[in-house]
Specification:
Layout (H helix, E strand, L loop, with lengths): L5 H5 L13 E2 L11 H7 L4 H5 L5 H11 L6 E4 L1 H13 L5 E6 L4 H8 L3 E6 L8 H7 L4 E7 L11 H10 L4 E5 L3 H4 L7 H4 L2 E6 L12 E4 L5 H7 L7 H12 L1 H24 L4 E2 L5 E5 L4 H10 L2 E2 L1 E2 L9 E5 L3 H22 L4
Parallel strand pairs: 1-11, 3-4, 3-5, 5-6, 6-7
Antiparallel strand pairs: 2-8, 7-8, 9-10, 10-13, 12-13
Length: 358
């Protein structure tokens, strides 16, 4: 009888809790107000002819490359960052190769790598979720063919310094080093200028976060002129849909919208952090559009209580090292005030149930 490969049957599925998401969306790190109004206006101009033709990716890749100050041959548009990860795994991994991933982090690095029959090794972050440079360097072997690093990392918000990333790339020249910069707009630091010099360095970006285009599933993979042809060879010529390709030039052109939204998020991040400090609630500094908060053994009840007040949060307690933690996406100023009001109610209710008086 027909059966999937044993490795595929053994893979742990990634099931994000997407069903019944009614309320303020502070659970999936999406843009909480939506894309640029200019993008919406452009989408109203789509014609039947636009949808009847196969999408042409290359002209939009040229615009994206200009946006990044790169050559067109260094940029490949992808069906979200997920496809970028998949392409790298398919291009560079053989059965028995080793892949290093920093834990905790985005689950798809491990899933796509394991599907190739590579051996995935988790390198746990430091106790404060700091980037584990020394641990990574110590775990490198001749079999290491890929190293996946999100910076800023999800769900922690911590970052790896440029010098650390370049040190890894230089120390492991036979490994593809993926730096996932999905949250770049909230951090502002990048290793993109180094991709040709490093050779084995790849950078992924997304338009799902600051740009508010998560529903269109569009991202980018950037790499050296030497290695990108191989990735194009295994990529479908029609991997990015026509609607996304129509929207992206307008989204790129409206930098003012993205910059203004990112600034709101940075302010909201500090506003929430200040509130958490006032209540003595542990959290970790973040350079992304979210905070990881330690709420303890009652994390499920906490998320449920906030949801009853119309706000969605993400329980991350199952991630390595994140026991009792909840991730909170940062929204606009008004959204953060609504969240803080709900948090105060839940904290007060928790204290009453515990018999704590102030």
């Amino acid at each position: 009888m027909l059966s999937p490969r044993p490795r595929i049957r053994q893979l742990q599925e990634y099931h994000p809790p997407l069903s019944r998401r009614t309320g303020m969306r502070l659970d999936f790190n999406e843009n909480t107000v939506g894309c640029s109004p200019r993008v919406l206006q452009r989408l109203t101009q789509i014609t039947a002819e636009d949808l009847a033709r196969y999408p042409e990716r290359e002209p939009v890749e040229t615009l994206a490359a200009q946006h990044l100050n790169l050559a067109p041959e260094q940029v490949l548009l992808t069906n979200g960052v997920d496809e970028a990860i998949h392409l790298l795994c398919e291009a560079y991994l053989e059965a028995g190769d080793e892949v290093l991933v920093v834990a905790p982090t985005f689950s798809m690095y491990e899933i796509y790598a394991a599907a190739t029959c590579a051996q995935v090794t988790r390198v746990q972050c430091e106790s404060d979720f700091a980037f584990p440079l020394t641990k990574i360097l110590c775990r490198l072997t001749p079999a290491t063919r890929m190293i996946a690093i999100a910076s800023p990392n999800n769900p922690t918000g911590s970052v790896a310094a440029r010098e650390q990333l370049l040190q890894i790339a230089n120390t492991a020249p036979d490994a593809a080093v993926l730096v996932d910069e999905a949250y770049y707009e909230f951090h502002g630091q990048t290793v993109l200028p180094e991709i040709d010099a490093a050779g084995n360095l790849f950078v992924a970006r997304t338009f799902s976060k600051a740009y508010g285009l998560a529903g269109l599933r569009i991202g980018m993979l950037c790499g050296s002129r030497q290695h990108m042809p191989a990735l194009r060879r295994i990529s479908s010529p029609y991997n990015v849909n026509a609607v996304a390709l129509i929207a992206l030039p307008t989204a790129l052109a409206d930098r003012e919208y993205v910059d203004a939204y990112a600034e709101q998020i940075k302010q909201g991040r500090e506003r929430l952090a200040c509130e958490l400090r006032q209540h003595g609630i542990p959290y970790w500094p973040s350079q992304a559009n979210f905070l990881l908060v330690k709420v303890g053994a009652m994390h499920r009840e906490f998320v449920a209580a906030i949801r009853q007040r119309g706000i969605l949060l993400r329980d991350r307690s199952a991630d390595p090292g994140c026991e009792g933690c909840v991730r909170i996406t940062i929204g606009t100023g008004a959204q953060m005030e609504q969240l803080i009001g709900a948090l105060r109610e839940v904290w007060a209710e928790t204290k009453r149930q515990a018999g704590v008086t102030t």
